[in-house]
Amino acid sequence: MEMKKRINLELRNQAPEEVTELVLDNCRSSNGEIEGLNDSFKELEFLSMANVQLTSLAKLPTLSKLRKLELSDNIISGGLEVLAERCPNLTYLNLSGNKIKDLGTVEALQNLKNLKSLDLFSCEITNLEDYRDSIFDLLQQITYLDGFDQEDNEAPDSEDEDDEGNFMKPIYRNSFL
After folding, report:
1. pLDDT confidence of residue 156
2. Using an 8 Å Cβ cutoff, are 21 and 68 in contact?
3. Does position 169 have pLDDT exceeding 50, yes or no?
4. What is the spatial distance between Cα 45 and Cα 83, in angstroms, rounded to a whole number?
5. Do 36 and 61 meet the contact criterion of CB atoms below 8 Å apart?
6. Helix (H) or strand (E) holding 32
7. By three-state DSSP, how is residue 64 classified?
8. Residues near 11 by Cβ (< 8 Å), separated by ≥ 6?
9. From CA 146, how far away is CA 83, in angstroms rounded?
10. Is 157 exposed, middle or buried (CB count within 10 Å of its CB: 0-12, 13-18, 19+)?
11. Mapped to the 3 state alphabet, what secondary structure does 68-120 carry?
12. How many Å apart are CA 87 and CA 66, to the nearest integer?
């Protein structure tokens, strides 16, 4: 199913301005781009676009209330600076199963000041020597990387928010891990 059609289906007769959660997993993107999603989704707090063959985030609209973004199992290899510009309040970001290879690509996430949990599981970057230490040094705002903190303690077993409103544990819903 095409992404635009899936969005219309998921709206369930709601106006885009009323939607706080949108799951578009396993639909088809057009030429690897986001389509059908626009600035009118201004209340969106959770967006999942897992396994939609995305190669680019260039057409991601401004979603200033978005706190949780699920982008696992796509073909994204860069362009992450868009996230800080358009989704400045992200606390959770799942990029597992994408084509992220180096620290320079991830460096763009430094401007996501509220980011607490980042998932890069099954990305090439995880093969780098001292991968975890390098990411924690580069992104000092994060608490959890691939579901574990710097001391290898697992994120709390909750898919919801903690008392401070931070999303804590990666959700692998509809992922092929």
Report:
1. 86
2. no
3. no
4. 14
5. no
6. none
7. coil
8. 19
9. 19
10. exposed
11. EEECCCCCCCCCCHHHHHHCCCCCEEECCCCCCCCHHHHHHHHHCCCCCEEEC
12. 6
Q: Which residues contact 1 (CB under 8 A, 6 or more apart)?
A: 9, 27, 28
Tokens (6 digits) for 15: 């106006």
Residue 163, classified by CB atoms within 10 Å of its CB into exposed (0-12), middle (13-18) or buried (19+), is exposed
Res 157: pLDDT? 66
Spatial distance between the Cα atoms of 122 and 156, rounded to a whole number of angstroms:
21
Contacts of 130 (CB under 8 A, 6+ apart): none
Render pLDDT for 110-154 as a digit per residue (tens, 0 to 9).
999 999 999 999 999 999 999 999 999 999 999 999 999 999 999
Structure tokens at 140: 């000092």
Residue scoring higher pLDDT (163 or 45): 45
* CA 93 centroid distance within chain: 3
**Which two structure tokens, joined as six digits, stand for 87?**
């989704």
Q: Which residues are CB-contacts of 65 (< 8 A; sequence separation ≥ 6)? A: 42, 43, 44, 45, 89
Three-class DSSP category at 162: coil
Full-model pTM: 0.88
Q: How far apart are CA 32 and CA 30, in angstroms?
A: 5
